[in-house]
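Budget justification note: compute hours in this period were largely spent on complex prediction jobs such as the one shown. Inputs:
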Amino acid sequence: MTNLSNKRIRPHQTQNEALLFEISSPGKYAYKLPALDVPAVDAAALLGQTHRKVSAELPEVSEIEVVRHFTRLSTWNYAIDLGMYPLGSCTMKYNPRVNEVVARTEGLAEAHPHRPDSLAQGSLEVIDLLQRCLTEITGMDAITLQPAAGAHGEFTGILLVRAWHESQGNARKKILTPDSAHGTNPASAAICGYAVETLKSNAEGGVDLEALERQVDGETAALMLTNPSTIGVFESQIARIAEILHAKGALLYMDGANMNALVGKARPGDFGVDVMHLNLHKTFSTPHGGGGPGAGPVACKAFLEPFLPLPVLVQDKSGTKHWNYDRPKSVGRVRAFYGNVGVLIRALAYILANGPEGLRQTTEDAVLNANYIRRKLEDLYELPYQTGSMHEVVFSDKRQAAKGVKTGDIAKRLIDYGFHPYTVSFPMIVHGALMIEPTESESLEELDQFIAAMRAIAQEVEETPELVKTAPHSTRISRLDEVQAARKPILRWKQTA
Amino acid sequence: MRYLPKSPAEREKMLAEIGVASIDELFSVIPAEHRLRRELDVPRAYAESEIIDYFKAAGAKNATDYTSFLGAGAYRHYRPVVIDALVQRGEFLTSYTPYQAEITQGTLQAIFEFQTMIAELTGMDLANASMYDGSTGAAEALRMAMRVTGREQPVIAASVHPEYREVIHTYDRHQELPATVVGYDRETGRIDLAALEAAVSEKTAAVLVQSPNFFGVIEDIPAIAAIAHAKGALLVVSITEAISLGVVRPPVEADIVSMEAQSFGVALSYGGPGCGVIAAKEKYVRQMPGRLVGQTVDGNGNRGFVLTLSTREQHIRREKATSNICSNQALVALMATIFLAVYGKEGIRELAEHNLAKADYAAKTLSSQSGAKLLFNGAPRFNEFVLQTDESAAALSERLLENKIVGGVDLGRWYPELKNATLWCATEVITREQIDAAAKVIAKQPVEA
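Corresponding output:
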């Protein structure tokens, strides 16, 4: 395959491992229940017609096989713990191990959500402190920590927008989303019953103020804006954008996916944002875990506070904390219980580890890293927009595409150099986008290795484009047939005859 | 800051390479009036040991030495230690959604195994990669049924978890889709079949029931399915206590099952994160929300797994997607997968039978105290039961708390017609001694130390 030009990686063996169902055999087991201290029951007699007669075909394996199975599977994954994971918009930063330790603190991890508030004061204290930290960081007035992830936060935030408009006599009909927005923005607006209208970006990839003035009308409920934008650029006209919206009675919703560029440097509450969500699994270091769980708190200005989802945390004069359900204007419940509290604990641990200076320094380093990569690659990769980058930089594959090599190919080739790819083909306003977000967690050495890899690939595109187009060459499996997967979906294992 | 891998000299060097004099020059794109000119007002930086001390102190403020009979949608079960040992492997913990299949086969194969196990347990053809939780999953399952049927109105059992019903209301109130609520039989606690039959019409998209329901009672799924299907409506079954599937007949007549899988090895954690999941009949797969992992082959014929059918999803379809969900509960689904691998085919049944035995003993023991009786004794139940006492739920709770026992959930909060009724749960981790101690309090006898 390869004359890798850096010394970052060399191949190593990985074990093959079948599906659990294929290593199962009857009579093996990995559990032992304690002796039953109450009379055994005849399940068939107790349950009658509702008794399960045929057991589910779960695997039968021993404990060592369980441990080896999942350990072997784990070695097939790339992870932040292995190296740079520059997925733009995803903020793949270091996930501190102390977060995992404290989330498992006995009194917190074992707390049942229905226990009386008086026996949950510790959990409530953690929630309260995180609420106060996040309202300060965002410059907003109130917050709910309940949404389970970013998209759930968007849904909740737009419900607040809708409830407020309703209280003004008209729920309004449409939500504006820029063509550079995450797909969740229009999807969330649609779920809240709004028509979605796309706002075309201007030549710099930002909000086109004239188009905005044209499109905002008396039926516009809000603009959902990511700031910094998905091309990593701060909307310097943000105050004007807010003005245009507010003049027509519309609100400014901020998708806080890119908050890692702002913490400690600027606050959405100070530049006209009415309501926003945060992604704790991005900016606040809680692990992505292969796709979740996340947490998507929604922060808002005071005028939206009465509409926050149920319940809301309050404190009485003695300092005792309670959940308050007596909130007649509330949008209602957005989920059972109080949120992904285990994730909230991790986010608070991160804030405590950093302190004010650490949070600011983190943001500065994230922006420093992205600009360093930009500087070191802009001679080889096309920069579609010249505006200064914040925490991520977006190139296009224009020059490489001339050789028949697309952003997806370059991404796959990066794997051979020991890196996770950047975000491919997003945002959609950039044709053939390479969206690179290094985060603050990368050392200069790691960044230089990444830059060397990207430069080597650019050279390969010139000299041996096929090598790039058929990458990766070093993985357990090569490119998978996604068309076949979708045409005849096999979504579960089945015993073959 | 100890998480930041740079020396001051390296920062200077990088700034020089970029060609700026200071870091603030890189932030000059933010208009000056919007820049924060002070440090944030958050607590000072803590040492690692201080962080641990802070959370230990918080944990201690949550009572830890109480016996708890709480269930009602969140269940305490023993968690085998290999779960935490394995999910804390950085390769699982610190990886992203497996979009790059070549370097995420570990996550993808584990999700494929999860999907298979959930399909097996629920009696459905297939399952997705997870939803946020049981409540949002139930709301999304109803939306899915609406897309399948092209109808808008759900019929919902009053015995579905009240918080789930509230969430469904929040999801649907802006779609002008009035839900009809069907009550329960006062003898059995099961859905009132006659009322259900009257409520279901040609406009009904789906009937939503929970089983075991909020009172712990197992519903007659075949009878409910027949009523729903007779009018062309789908049946959606919500399951909050996943362990029940070890011994309770799966809802094979359902079209969609929405389950909260927290019972499969996930800590209570004050109610989240849990692990929602939607399972369904194969013919509805293209209306499924959330991620799906499918099996395929690579260029050399090797088996591999990929995220598939993504044209349903928001990153492709935007406002026309089946759901706005992006992040799900992947790591929690992995916990459930490991839990189910540990217990396996025989273990899940034995575990469920232990729950059945503990709850049966608890129900009989507590209800045989003077002034106490069982409600809904006319239908089978799993590990929860409703106790009715002469004493008010609040007064009983107070006396139990004095004895370091958290008793059943007060049902009067959601069902005012159920006077002095509390919902109790006894899983395998409850001991006979604890049940007997609670019985003594109910009987107003002093409990020995």
